[in-house]
Write a structure and sequence with these properties.
The protein has 15 helices and 14 strands. The radius of gyration is 24 Å and the shape is globular.
Amino acid sequence: MTFYRLLCASVLILSGCDPKEDPIAAINREVQKNSEAYKTLKQATETIGHRLSGSENGKRAEEFVFSLFKSYGFDEVAYQPFDMVTWSRGEVSLKVGLADRGPAQQLKVVSLAHTPEAIEVSASLVDLGNGLSDDYNRDTGIVKDKIAVVYLGLLPSTPEGTQNLHRSEKTALAMKYGAKGIIFINQVDGGVLLTGTASVTGDLIDIPAVCVGKEDGLALRLKMEKQPHRAHIKMTNKSEKLQARNIIATVPGSEQPEEIIIIGGHLDSWDLATGAIDNGIGSFAVIDMARTFKALDLKPKRTIEFVLFMGEEQGLFGSTHMVNSLKQNNTLDQVKYMVNVDMAGNPIGFNAGARPEASSFFQLAGERIKKVDSSFENQASHRVGLHSDHQPFLLEGIPIMSLTSNLDRSIYGCYHSDCDDFELVNQQHLNNTVRFTSMMLYQLADAESLPAERLSSGRNRDFLIANNLKDKLVIGGDWRWGE
């Protein structure tokens, strides 16, 4: 009998709890009554601030989480240190003006990460629209020795079905065709500026990459339609090799402890705000899931590792290090599933990671959750993408699960921006993330057989091609299978 059931039985008359309570119902009760995710996230944003990897704030965030795990009674909690080349912003300025008169108007601007430590560029501007391959293929020399102006999202005139690229992939294309710099136009109203990495590798790039607000950027495009314009970009930044640490808390499996389910979220954030949404709501939900399992003394068949990754924002450094370490130790085969919680919450279903063979399991497990709380819609989702901590696992063929979120759309306007602060966090949505994801996690770790298996290298290559990920992986230098 588990500790929880012994304790529950001993106070049955006083508390009314049931020693035979279903684990799914127990999770629901525990989180509804005792969740600490909202409280601990609030404390972290108020006492630490941003959680930039390699910074003093990042180190304090790592220690904060380690202490939380210890306070929840975890004996098996550990740091996983790794070296990374960090980047931090200095000063930046952007001036634009008519080509025949030189730059004059100064625009509000923010640097993207992994731009050079010191660079100053003056060049003609060229409107590259969405900055996709087709925009360059019309004239492969159009941007050579010029500064590209590119929309971060997809412009309204874009043909339906067009797939967008990550800002780092758009930067890589600009560099491929000889651009001297790139200016991104944010897609969010209100002059919001977006940061994030402009490097597909996590290494410093050779050109300046900056972001301007939507209104300034669209106004500049209109001016460029009428007359040629130039820009002057000047920036300083800092890059150095430092150490960051993943934090791992382990619940050993009761029957098949050698089989591991990893659930993770990145703890690090950018430095323009406190990163409450990206990825406070994910990482602190993962921490509270661990607390919930410990409080209930839940011991599913398989081992669960609750992982807080660092270095995600600057290049998936923490998750890549973890995968490489597992490969070096010949233990990667033990990882049977990776569950990623990144800017996700208030789930109305779970995403089977484009593995159709897993769909029935998640649908049936979702019905079990729905019986406990009918607000859970149990919507099926079948998609897979890149640019978060699941990617290194995905490239090894490991099955992925994620959340089908139902968050307020307004919060995404503060993605990587100076408005990503705690007032955006909805407490009930955060509790729902902990509740429903813990319920699904328990069923996955306790299943008689897992819904999907690791793909061989050849099958994984075909899987990635079928899900339209090859071109993005080629641009990012992560395609391993040749042509």
